[in-house]
Amino acid sequence: MTKYLLGVINNKYFLILMFLAISFPIFVSWIVSLDNFMWYEMAYNNDWISFLGSYLGGIFGGLFTLFGVLITIKKQEQQGKKVDLFQFENSLFRLLSLKNESVNNIEFEVNQKERVKGKMGFEWISREIDEIFNGLLNEEYKKYGVDVEIDLEYHIINQTITELYSKYGTILAHYFINVSYILESISQLEENSLKVNYTSILKAQLSQAELKVIFYHSIVPVGHDLLYNLVNENALFDTFDNSFLIDAEHSIFFEKIDEFLGSELNEISLFLDNDNYNSEEHWE
To answer: For this UniProt entry, which segments traverse the membrane (predicted)?
Structure first.
């Protein structure tokens, strides 16, 4: 409140107004008190003194009233912000709790003798991203016998996440919707410092396996619309250890998403428009 009051007082327009309001009656008093001024005697009568006192009293009384109103408004705003922030934190921590609960409730069979649960389920999904990607990458290498270029790696990542989704789509869809709600609630905050603070709280709640799955999901067509803008706006991956990625160089996909995503969508569109794809022979 003190800082706000000082801010008002230090405002240059406020200072100019104060100067004019105080100096005007003093200037007039000086003018009329000059020996050769036609109203010299009037300058010293009681009426003038009463006028000057009333004038200054009105100014300072109005200013003090204004200060009181400003302080009251500011206090109400601060109380409103505290209530809003309290409600936001309650909502955020409920969503974080639901996110953790959804991870803990993960359970699926990996073979006839083994089932994985909870965080180990996400670890398994994270490792499977590597396995699917490397398998597809080896197939491309066998085809061409040369190192795969970075844009082709993006295409392989898209295939990887598509295949991953065919296996764990139900689990991942629920999880990603929950994460998107958390990110959306943080992005609605007005103060950037609060966004940074609550994004840090979210990151502290995410395992490396979760960060990895979120990263790759947000950069491919199947997950881009839901997650990328929210992840980018809240700077979830601005400072992170990219060693948990399949390849550290894959961070470029997030930085240049429009370039890679646009190219991938064009290829998909061309494939769908291909006469051979739409022909009956293709489906026989």
So the answer is: 12-32, 52-73
Is the separation of the CB atoms in 231 and 183 below 8 Å? yes
pTM above 0.70, yes or no: no
Per-domain residue ranges for the chain?
A: 2-97, 105-283
Q: What is the pLDDT along the chain (284 residues), one digit of tens a residue?
A: 444 444 544 556 556 666 666 666 666 555 555 555 444 455 555 555 565 556 556 666 666 666 666 666 666 666 656 557 788 888 888 889 989 998 998 888 888 778 899 899 999 999 999 999 999 888 877 666 555 577 788 889 999 999 998 899 888 888 999 999 999 999 988 888 889 999 999 999 999 999 999 999 999 988 888 899 999 999 898 877 788 899 888 888 888 888 887 766 665 544 444 444 344 443 34
CA 141, CA 139: separation in Å to the nearest integer? 5
Q: Is 116 helix (H, G, I), strand (E, B) or coil?
A: strand
The answer to whether the beta carbons of residues 24 and 30 sit under 8 Å apart is: no
Q: How many residues does the chain have?
A: 284
